[in-house]
Amino acid sequence: MKLSVQNLTKEFGETCAVKHVSFDLSYGVYGLLGPNGAGKTTLMKMMVDILAPSEGKVLLDGVNIKELGASYRDKLGYMPQEIGVYKNFSARRFLKYIAALKGITGKAADEKIEELLDLVGLKDTGKKKLGGFSGGMLRRIGLAQTLLNDPKILIFDEPTAGLDPQERIRFRNIISELSENRIVLLSTHIISDIEFIAGQVIIMRNGAILTIDTTENLLQEVEGRVWTTVVSHAELDRLKKQFTIGNIVQRSNGVEIRIVGDRQPPFPCKTVKPILEDVFSYYFGGNV
């Protein structure tokens, strides 16, 4: 299976939110990375056929998704940033309602719902009304809803927002297991989520693709370009104007900072092994 994005462009009046984007996806997990306003959500909405492109097209195995229509949506699972639920519905009732909308009814629906509630760790709260769910629990219901039709293409927009660390690990593990025979596109501001599970990373800025590469190659690109040192608070304000500063950690002897760039700072510092956040800092000037 191959999902191809060809020259996708979206204009809103005089603003071009996505600019001539092209790439191919096959089985595996792809991370979509970029600062706010990069065009990630607009791109994904065009890929799931919610938003019509100004130019370009999306193909599944060489066929335009506009021509495929319902057969494309049958293969698709999309989890947006904002998940709409009926607060007076229980978790089971809500999933049964969504299953019916997807054409899944009767025993097949009941069995799938129980399987998914167990998968996302909500089997014991299936009778509880969604209005009493925490934000993290609602994200898990959103994941279960996305998986109801056993989709082969999964597109997630900020899926781990509001999840605690344990829930994020659970989510990452689920996605990693699902990706063996599925195409998964994952957009998130939590860079470690991508670092742990994405085979390739798509980096966007100002509506355009900057690069598409494996996590390993991206990390290798900034090898030797990341340093740490400890400075005073007064020095930190000055250095922020001269260098790209990543992580800042308070220490007993000052402030430990992480510097990313093409030139080594002209003061004592130590070269360290890069992480994916350093790649983000390298491309976007520390806007992690």
> Beta-sheet strand percentage?
25-35%
Spell out the CATH superfamily of the largest domain.
P-loop containing nucleotide triphosphate hydrolases
CATH domain topology of the largest domain: Rossmann fold
Total discrete domains: 2
Low-confidence stretches: none
Number of helical stretches of at least 4 residues:
11
Shape designation: globular
Instruction: Indicate the CATH class of the largest domain.
Output: Alpha Beta
- The counted number of beta strands is 14
Helix vs. strand class:
alpha/beta
User: What can be said about the biggest beta sheet?
Assistant: 6 strands, mixed
Q: Mean pLDDT, as a whole number?
A: 91
Structure description:
With 288 residues, this protein is α/β, with parallel strands linked by helices. It folds into two domains: 3-219, Rossmann fold, CATH 3.40.50.300; 224-272. Helix content is 35%, strand content 30%. The chain contains eleven helices and 14 strands. The chain has helices at residues 40-47, 65-68, 70-74, 91-101, 106-119, 135-147, 165-178, 191-197, 215-221, 233-240, 276-284, and strands at 3-12, 15-25, 28-33, 55-60, 63-64, 76-79, 153-157, 183-187, 200-205, 208-214, 226-231, 244-251, 254-260, 270-271. A six-stranded mixed β-sheet has the order 6-7-8-3-9-10, with helices on both faces. Strands 2-1-4-5 form a four-stranded antiparallel β-sheet. Strands 12-13-11-14 form a four-stranded antiparallel β-sheet. A hairpin with a 2-residue loop joins strand 9 and strand 10 (208-214). Helix 4 crosses helix 5 and helix 5 (106-119) crosses helix 6 (135-147). The chain starts with a strand and ends with a helix.
